[in-house]
Amino acid sequence: MPVSSIISFFLFCLGVGKTTLTKKICERLRTNRIKIQGFYTEEKREHGSRIGFDVVSLDGKRGPLARITSQQCGNFPKVGKYAVDIQAFESIALPILNNLQGSPVLILDEIGKMELYSNKFKQKVSEIFRNSETVILATIPSRPMPVVDSLRKLPSAKIFTLSVQNRDDLEDEVMTHLMAPLATT
């Protein structure tokens, strides 16, 4: 059985710069010639207003994660005023999670309420976190959620609490944590 994952979590509140920090860390990992896979989520805006969120793979594939609820959203699950497009999310996220060979670092921005509407995603994330040698950087919300709470309690998990006050200083600390296990392989 493989050794447990080395897991780093950003614990965050909304609007503190989690995706910006995640992208900076991805760039530094690439500069260090570390192979990374994963995705991030970002706001989708139209005419200056947020209309939803996209999921973007680190190799550039993009799809809708959620949009402001409309009649076209049918039976999509809702988070606030947003309808979550599980099928579109899974079309980007699941191929990444199902093909981790040769990738020492997995980036998951984020494991939140919208993403966890996908049972396939939830199952695969739990499997990877418990049975993989992959180094993982994931962003998780500060509010309690059963799946996230169970991941947070894993013995190999390290929590970095991201705030407006520390977001500029946290990059080096997280990089040191991520690079340590990679130096021994």
The biggest beta sheet is recorded as: 9 strands, mixed
According to CATH, the homologous superfamily is P-loop containing nucleotide triphosphate hydrolases
Secondary-structure arrangement, i.e. CATH architecture = 3-Layer(aba) Sandwich
Count of distinct structural domains: 1
Give the tally of β-strands. Answer: 9
- C-alpha Rg (nearest Å): 16 Å
What would the principal axes of the Cα set say about the shape? globular
CATH class division:
Alpha Beta
Number of helical stretches of at least 4 residues? 5
Main sheet: strand order: 5-6-4-3-2-7-8-1-9
Q: Which regions contain 5 or more consecutive residues with pLDDT less than 50?
A: none
Order of helices and strands: EHEEEEEHEHEHEH
Pfam family, one: NTPase_1
Keywords: ATP-binding, Hydrolase, Nucleotide-binding, Signal
Protein name: Nucleoside-triphosphatase THEP1
InterPro entries: Nuc-triphosphatase_THEP1 (IPR004948), P-loop_NTPase (IPR027417)
